[in-house]
Design a protein that fits this description.
The protein is mainly β. It is about 15% helix and about 40% strand. It contains 2 helices and 22 strands. It has helices at about 5-25, 300-320; strands at about 35-40, 50-60, 65-70, 75, 85-90, 100-110, 110-115, 120-125, 130-135, 140, 155-160, 165-170, 175-185, 185, 190-200, 210-215, 230-235, 240-245, 250-255, 265-270, 275-280, 290-295. Strands 2-3-4-5-9 form a 5-stranded mixed sheet, with no helix packed on it. About 40% of the residues are buried. The model is unreliable at about 10-15, about 15-25 and about 300-305 (pLDDT under 50).
Amino acid sequence: MKKPPFIARTLFVALSLLAASSAQALSSINLDSYSVTGNYALDTLNDMGLEASAVTYAKDRGSLFFVGDEGLGVVEMSLTGQTKGSKAFDWTGTGSSNNDAEGLTYLGNGILVVVDERPQIAYRFDYDDAGTVLLNNQPKVAITGNSTSVGNVGTEGISFDPRDGRFFSVKQDGPAELRVATLNFAVGGGTTATTTLFSGTSALFGLNSLSDIQTLSSVDSLSGQEAAGNLLILSVDSKKLIEINSGGTVLSEFDLSGLTTQAIEGVTVDEKGTIYLVAEDSGTPNSRLFVLTAPVPEPETYALLLAGLGLLGFMARRRKI
């Protein structure tokens, strides 16, 4: 006996939906599906917590780190904005003109990298909840190979790709740039091999300026998939968060214009795909943490789908008897 048309059609539709869902996961995280699920005021911490300009996620600690663009230090906080600890920066001997801590990324095992925007120098240091870190005594490297100041349009964001140890960074403007580099840190100054992937004097990726960057390779559900090579790019001036692929094509975006009047300057993501943004305190008493999440099918959803397919298959076999 032939398989009933109804069962055949149902099986085809179910498998098509499952394939479509997998294909979507392969190519994009789809920022359009995200919504704001958290909004938290950050402690001022004697001004260390003001003007939040960069944020990074520490998977092995289950926490976030952020810095303010006055460069007073780094703060560790929970995923809902509660302070867990902090460490002050001492810029003595660095030659920094403004101590613009604008880029921050986490390497694992308590190791952080902070970037001084204007000379575009990255400093690597070990975090502990105590005292002060003398940055000039830490391993460091000029991202572009030299430390000549480019003014207040320099490196605004940096992100570490744990798959191969490379660092992605963005230059704010004049021109805006997206770069990838192998950074060899050393006390006194290391070496770098930096490649500019994209550059533009106006509207790079449709954005008026670039404020931060985040790799998506650490999102567990994207492991081994095409979307693991995508990047999140944040723009304060355009009030947008976008997702691009390795070719620079914009795949999805999230409009930040209605979220706050504060300047959102930092972005990071955890292994679940939850996105965290930090905003300066301009005109308000506190910097803020915003959390964006997307609805994802629960494991039970897939289990029910597979169970349904199995039942349809069983019915089809029974019809043949």
